[in-house]
Write a structure and sequence with these properties.
Elements (H helix, E strand, L loop, with lengths): L13 H11 L6 H18 L3 H27 L5 H21 L1 H22 L1
Helix pairs in contact: 1-2
């Protein structure tokens, strides 16, 4: 059994909380969930050595994939119910794997590895 999360209260500027509410609404997140998402992105960027442009590109790709996933989910919800359980279970399995990878640090390590590989490829292209 997993241990319950502990929480702490922090003071944040009202404008930041409002931005989080606005950003969270279309993604069906809470304001706290949106802020956690932003923190996770910031940690990944800091620890991966991404440039600002690489981080922006990665965020744009992630958000595009998230939009596509939401649209696919809406289509599934509109589809006959006999196909939904299998897909929902597989989506939940993927979500659990991603959360586990994020929690144990392997997701960040994999991202760092991909970024390092891409940088090496770019350097080889420049040298050629």
């Amino acid at each position: 059994m997993t241990a319950a999360k502990s929480f702490a209260s922090v003071k944040l500027p009202e404008s930041l909380v409002q931005q989080a509410r606005d950003a969270a609404q279309p993604l069906r997140r809470s304001a706290a969930g949106q802020i956690e998402y932003w923190v996770t992105l910031g940690r990944v960027v800091e620890h991966s050595g991404l440039t600002v442009q690489e981080a922006r590109d990665a965020i744009e790709r992630y958000e595009a994939a998230a939009r596509e996933a939401r649209e696919a989910q809406m289509k599934l919800e509109a589809a006959p119910s006999d196909s939904s359980p299998v897909v929902s279970e597989s989506l939940e399995a993927v979500k659990r794997r991603m959360l586990a990878a994020n929690a144990d640090g392997s997701l960040q390590a994999h991202i760092r590895s991909i970024v390092a590989d891409n940088r090496q490829k770019a350097e080889r292209r420049k040298a050629a």
